[in-house]
């Protein structure tokens, strides 16, 4: 699969009415930055919403003005599984993000200063509510499909629960119905790495004209480590030494150490991800537990869902293991929901949903063909 050459142009939805958040806080107004690909058909029946993962954003496909490809460009574009010759694809930067949507690095309209740590905690339900405003703005009655991997898959689940009549298909990829204690623990260690950085300044680092780069790098190193599988790391790095022999010091000796430090440095500097956003996103992940509102019964939580589902997991993903996808599938089957399930063989761990894989691409493409047939049945394919 090759990169789509189309230059993607971000757009901004400015919502001037308040958004009541699950935490009890309120955003007096907010912006959502989004990109679209393809064309909306006459009856708006071919619209697809892509929900991004923790460090993702609205730039999901094509290239930006700097020539950078979208984070899922391998699967979205002309002739690709999510074919933009057929579908109108939308992806927004979540509230609390740092790529233009209202978040910690934007200005608080009330105080006139950068939000920083004052930006309120947001949850998956809040993201879905704001995305629903984008749906209304675009004149889309019902999404043909919602698609998301990892944290994006959690948003798809939340949509199916909160707005069951607003999506016809739900693709939940490498996700889970809630985080395990181990996953919450990983997130807490990452947050502590950021907050203990002397350049964090209690979240007001932008006002101090600095960045907690060391804390961000450590958080990313930990996160990246959990996204990879032991087999993949073993085959890629093994115990290979960087200098060919042991140095007997605390410097970088093994290639895997060098790789992780590079990933951390790249995230903290080149990608320049906002530290407060990282804290917010991991907290939203921790809080996600839709069954909690239904007597902790996932089957009851999904009882109102009317969408058809595709659930995909990857064999080496130990962060969101196939067993977690099995929980989702079981809950859907308990309600006689139309659900397809694929467990894809991969050595790439949690990152597998972003990477080329012949089996995965085939499943993805086949299911999107089914989505297209439903659009044709509605008469919207002409």
Automatic annotation (TrEMBL):
GO terms for molecular function: homoserine O-acetyltransferase activity. The active site is at residues 150, 317, 350. The record marks 319 as: Important for acyl-CoA specificity. Pathway: Amino-acid biosynthesis; L-methionine biosynthesis via de novo pathway; O-succinyl-L-homoserine from L-homoserine: step 1/1. Coiled coil: none annotated. Gene3D superfamilies: 1.10.1740.110, alpha/beta hydrolase. Keywords: Acyltransferase, Amino-acid biosynthesis, Cytoplasm, Methionine biosynthesis, Transferase. It catalyses: L-homoserine + succinyl-CoA = O-succinyl-L-homoserine + CoA. Substrate binds at residues 220, 351. It is found in: Cytoplasm. The keyword Transferase applies. Transfers a succinyl group from succinyl-CoA to L-homoserine, forming succinyl-L-homoserine. Homodimer. This is Homoserine O-succinyltransferase. It comes from Thiomicrorhabdus heinhorstiae.
